[in-house]
Amino acid sequence: MAMFSESVDVVCAPDGQPVSLQWQGRTYSVCPEPVRWYERRQWWAEESRAPLGSGPGLVDHEIWRVQVLPSPSGASKDTEPGEPLTLDLTRHIRSGRWRLLRIHDALRPRTA
User: Fold this and answer.
1) What is the distance, to the nearest Å, from the Cα of residue 66 to the centroid of all Cα atoms in its chain?
2) H helix count then E strand count, the chain
3) Phi, psi (5° rounding) for residue 21?
4) Average per-residue pLDDT in the chain?
5) Region of residue 25 (phi > 0: left; psi between -120 and 50: alpha; otherwise: beta)
6) Coil, helix or strand for 23?
7) Contact call for residues 78 and 97 (beta carbons, < 8 A)
8) So what's the pLDDT on residue 74?
9) Which residues fall within 8 angstroms of residue 76, CB to CB, at 6 or more apart?
10) Which of 63, 71, 2 is nearest to 31 (CA)?
11) Does the pLDDT at position 56 exceed 70?
């Protein structure tokens, strides 16, 4: 597993669920049923105090674990889609910006 903090562009469904993303110049489709949870962040290192009742965006941050496949744009029908990558993404609630946090699958070189 590799740790990152790299910006990614994510397109979401109306319910907020990621459906595709663009990373390092490539577009990926999100496989069905990504998983969402919240993790505590060290808000005290960035904020002087936490207003009563604040949670998402200040105390917690939203994490999505998604499996993605390269989108077939520009690929021929004979091209295999490859194995899905499992990624953890986070969305900053106030700004809506997305970042790649973790890659769970090693990128394996293709063999001939």
Assistant:
1) 6
2) 0, 7
3) -150, 155
4) 79
5) left
6) strand
7) no
8) 41
9) none
10) 71
11) no
Burial 96-107 (b: 16+ CB within 10 A, else e): eebbbbbbeeee
Helical H segments across 8-81, by residue range: none
Is 36 in contact with 64 (CB distance < 8 Å)?
A: yes
Residue in this structure with the two tokens 């907020």, named with its chain if needed = 16
pLDDT interval class at 67 (50, 70, 90): very high
Q: What is the mean pLDDT of residues 98-104?
A: 92
Encoded tokens for 36: 């969402």
Concatenating the DSSP letter of every residue in 83-98 gives PPEEEEEEE-TTT--E
CB 76 within 8 A of CB 33: no
**Distance between CA 106 and CA 93 in Å, rounded?**
29
